[in-house]
Amino acid sequence: MEKPAAPISVRAGQLEFLKLNASAWEWRDAYHWILSLTWPRFAGVVLSGYLLLNTGFAAAYSLGGKCIAEMSAGSFVDAFFFSVETLSTVGYGHWYPETRYAHVVSAIEIVSGMFWMAMITGLIFVRFSRPIARIVFSDSLVVAPFDGKPTLMLRVANLRHQSLVEAEFRIMLLRDETTVEGESVRRFHMLKLTFDRLIMFPVALTLRHIVDEQSPLYGATLESMQRSDSRFMASIVCVDAVIPAPLQKQRDYTWRDVRFGHRFVEIYADLEDGRLAVDYGRLHETEPVV
């Protein structure tokens, strides 16, 4: 009987899912996995692969006896550094293959080195050239009157010093609801925003959802959100006009992150020369509604 696979952890913001009886890994996932690594981990993987590759060829040279000129027979250390020189095609000339066995191994290593360098160069290029969305979401959601109506608000800001274009904004509500049959299910509600698209997204703005009779949040309180385990997912899709390339950023919130009776502090100020100053140091600050 086949042994069940170990649970696989998948995180989506603050939520963690455990996949049961799912295949753990396929070799085709390696490319995506490597690109998702942080730079320190990526460097660690590259260094580990480099050392492992040279160690394997060093072992092959060591098993060949006196197969490399000027190298001590059976010396693993000498064989390792000869492998490093061969893999990089440096070839200082002090050590060189002098048997057919060594020529075959070194030929295999040279071809392997060509593939290795091409692969690593491509991965590094992709990691450097891939655009990163430097977009920040406010630490909390607020619910306060706006234009005389209760409104759910979320602040977002572009941290880059160039304007993003064709920005599209979404906020989704996730909560437990009871069906007619009495079963508890997870419902997904797209919240209608007062605006969900911008031609240009230069600095910071506030997304707003009017809580009226048509809103799934109509009549909601912090206590009702807690009972239904309400969560919010915010997403921004836009285009970096410099490269150009599409960008995407998201963040999730729980009911604990919602502040009723609060609003975001003003971060815009008019300057005498007609320009607008935006205080990024106060992006997350809120204040009670008077």
Q: How are the SSEs placed, and which strands pair?
A:
Layout: E1 8-12, E2 15-19, H1 30-35, H2 39-63, E3 68-69, H3 76-87, E4 96-97, H4 100-129, E5 135-137, E6 141-146, E7 149-158, E8 164-178, E9 184-190, E10 197-201, E11 204-210, H5 222-227, E12 231-240, E13 245-254, E14 258-260, E15 262-264, E16 268-270, E17 276-278, E18 286-288
Parallel strand pairs: 6-14
Antiparallel strand pairs: 1-2, 3-4, 5-7, 6-7, 7-11, 8-9, 8-10, 8-12, 12-13, 15-18, 16-17
List keywords for this structure.
290 residues; elongated; 5 helices; alpha+beta; 5-stranded mixed β-sheet; 5-stranded antiparallel β-sheet; 35% strand
Structural features, described:
The chain contains 5 helices and 18 strands. With 290 residues, the chain is of the alpha+beta class. β1 (8-12) and β2 form a beta hairpin.
